[in-house]
Amino acid sequence: MNSAGNKKPSGEVAPSPVFPGDSRKATVDPPAAPSTADSPENPFLLLFHQSSEALLLLDCGGRNILDWNPAARTLLGYSTSTENLPPLSHIFPRQIRRLRAFCRKVLEEGAASHHDLIGYTSRGTPVPVTLRGWRIVLPEGEHLLIRLEDRTKRDRTEQALWESRYLFRTLIENMQEGVMIVDNDDVIQFINPRITQMLGYTEEELIGKVGYKLLFSRRDQKIIREKNRLRTRKIADRYEIRMRRKSGGYIWVQISGVPITDAGGNVVGSFGIITD
Q1: CA 225 to CA 212: how far, in whole Å?
Q2: Is the pLDDT of residue 249 over 60?
Q3: Same domain membership, residue 203 and residue 107
Q4: Which CATH number belongs to the domain containing residue 180 in this structure?
Q5: Do 180 and 220 belong together in one domain?
Q6: 15, CA 20 to 30 Å: which among 106, 163, 231, 265?
């Protein structure tokens, strides 16, 4: 990034840069010692080049790269000693219009985030990235600061999570035992096909219903409510009880119930394995 420097010929100090999140216009804030925009002592460039996040500095129209930091060069497969700045059309050849639209949004609104694009490295390898951008004010005028977040690891994690959920659901749906998940009020959230076979209800007839009211006699409802209270105290147990079929008849079952907790450790329901 070329500049004549922060100090004007008259000796006046140029405005300090305004960083992301600061809505103020540049103000006069004399540094301890004069420094030029290209000097490593410049606060903005010092942070810019030392940041571990991949950053691009664009012109206010979002058409040209004025500077990039080592993290961005590494992400995009360029040598850290690379001097030449590639055109944006080389990095986003297939989505340049979407990039332009994102830059316009940043310029108009001052900031924008969570915009997913596919970038390409110097060797043509696709790199999924999430963009976040800010309009910033430097002594030379307005610029766009763009952060590139490599989405590769996140995408792999999401794919692994999807696969694990798929395998879990496949396992549950093919179990010989019945599986029922209820919330803390015993409202049925999930059942597997074995439950419909055991009780004669369809999935639509059970999901959203209060389990203890529909599936147990009045006498046994007290037992189920007590078991639910145990779950809220994170207590698992096993017991035998009669369940009511859709036909009105009863079958004896063994229920193994365990509490379900959220990320904060709070009990949000119960997971029951039911064997007839």
Answers
A1: 7
A2: yes
A3: no
A4: 3.30.450.20
A5: yes
A6: 106
pLDDT tier, 83 (very low <50, low <70, confident <90, very high otherwise)? low
**Judgement on whether residues 148 and 206 belong to the same structural domain of the protein:** no
Per-residue model confidence (pLDDT) at position 139: 85
Determine the 3-state secondary structure of 260 from DSSP: strand
For the chain, what is the domain count? 2
Say how far apart CA 129 and CA 113 lie, in whole Å.
12
Q: For all residues of the chain together, what is the average pLDDT?
A: 84
pLDDT value of position 4: 44
- 25, 18 in Cβ contact below 8 A? yes
Assess if residue 9 is contained within a domain: no
Same domain as 195, residue 103: no
Across the range 24-44, mean pLDDT stands at 46
Q: Which residues pair with 259 in a beta bridge?
A: 270
Residue 209 has pLDDT above 80, yes or no: yes
Spatial distance between the Cα atoms of 150 and 127, rounded to a whole number of angstroms: 7
- φ/ψ of 115, rounded to 5, equals -115, 115
Question: Residue 135 domain-assigned?
Answer: yes
Q: Specify whether 128 is located in the same domain as 186.
A: no
Query: 228 versus 40: which is more confidently predicted?
Result: 228
**Residue with the two structure tokens 């924008």:** 112
Amino acid at 45: L
Q: What is the dihedral of CA 158, 164, 167, 171, to 10 degrees?
A: -140
Max mean pLDDT range (34-48, 133-147, 165-179): 133-147
d(CA 158, CA 155): 5
Long-range contacts of 263-268 (CB under 8 A, 24+ apart): 267/184, 267/231, 267/232, 267/233, 267/234, 268/183, 268/184
Whether residues 135 and 223 share a domain: the answer is no
